[in-house]
Each structure stands twice: as structure tokens, then as C-alpha cells.
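Late entry, calcium ion complex.
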Amino acid sequence: MTKKILLVEDEKTLVRALAFNLEKEGFEVDVAYDGEEALGKIEQEEPDLIVLDLMLPKVDGYEVCRAVRKTSEVPIIMLTARDEDIDKILGLELGADDYITKPFNARELLARIRAIFRRTAQHEALAKKIIRMGSLEVDLVKHKVVLKGREIPLTSREYALLSFLVSNAGRVFTRGQLLEQVWGFDYCGDARTVDVHIRHLREKLEENPADPRMILTVWGTGYKFREG
Ligand code: CA
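Prediction complete; structure with ligand written out below:
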């Protein structure tokens, strides 16, 4: 997907040169020439990254950065003069992701932009929290279960039981422990409730529910999800 970059800078020749270079690299570029215009565009167009000059008409870069950070984690690269207080720019007060000191060339800026997009891509992959066990995928964020590429509809309790077992694959749980963990302390059911849900999960997920390969019975103890 094309990444959208908002350039905020009032020096029009610099803006034109940067926009030209970023577009050449395949980015979608939008421009704001003062802080007020920037805040409007950030809200309306939700850019993937902001290149923000400190010295701007109307609302300066500090104020824009502070305002954005109240509601958004969008990466911000600050354009600064040599004598700027870098600790303040990158610190908690402003929370910019990176800075670049003027004068700079487009290639330097591109390298910083690419580095930030690489980092955010890594974070996104980690934040997705998908557990894969053979041909089974459990998406812990979307509460979605996919088996051999097909989404399997589960009740919320079936999902809760499966995701708990999968998250603790290889560990054996008694029916009592599963009741506590999945149904909660104040649930007034008995161990057979667990058995019924395990049976339903096996019917939905196992090739042969009578000979399960994923959700295993540990005789005399309880259940476990196969390891690895
Ligand atoms: Ca400026």
C-alpha cells in the first residue's frame, strides 16, 4: 500500500524539491505551508508519516507536534535548525520520532523515512498476535480461527477455551482449572460443561473428532493442546 507523507514547511522551494523526490520514490505526498493547515490535514487525511518543520507561520512545529501527540502515534520527523534542543524534540514533551538538521539533502530524509517505516512494520507484525499451530491459526486480536485457510465459526466460549489452550500449548489443565480460567470463578457449572465444549471444538476442528490430534485428552487429568 502506498504510504502517505505530509510535508509541513513554509519554504516553498524546499517543499517542492522534497515532494518531487518523495513522489519519485513512490510515496504519496501532501503539503501544508503553515501549522494551522497542517493540523487540519493531519485530522482529515491521516498521513502515515509527517515531516514537520519547527519554524512555521501561525502555529509553530512545537505546537503542531504537541497537538498531534495528544491523539495520535503517527511518526513525526522534525526539521530543525542547528541550535535546536534535540532532547526536547525527541523527549516525552514533544515525542517526535526523529529529527534532521537543516541543511540536509533529500536522500538523508528518505533514509530516515524508510527506517521509520521498517520499524513500524515490525511493530505491526508483533501486535497482530496470531498463533499458528500447523494448519490452525488463532488471531488473538480479531478473535478469529482459521483452519486450512477457512474461517471456523466458534461461539465466544468455544473461542475463549481454544485460545486459552492454544496460548498454553503442551500444558495439561484439569477441568476445574479450565472452568476457572475460561468461565471464571463465579461460574456455577460443572466439569461436564468443559467436556461438552471440548467435544464441540473437536467436531469443528479435528479431521476425526473421535481420534483428536490437536485437543488431546490426558486420562485421569484433563486436556491439553498438542505442542508445536
Ligand atoms: Ca520554516
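Residues 9-11, 53, 55-56 surround calcium ion (CB under 6 Å). Will revisit in the morning.
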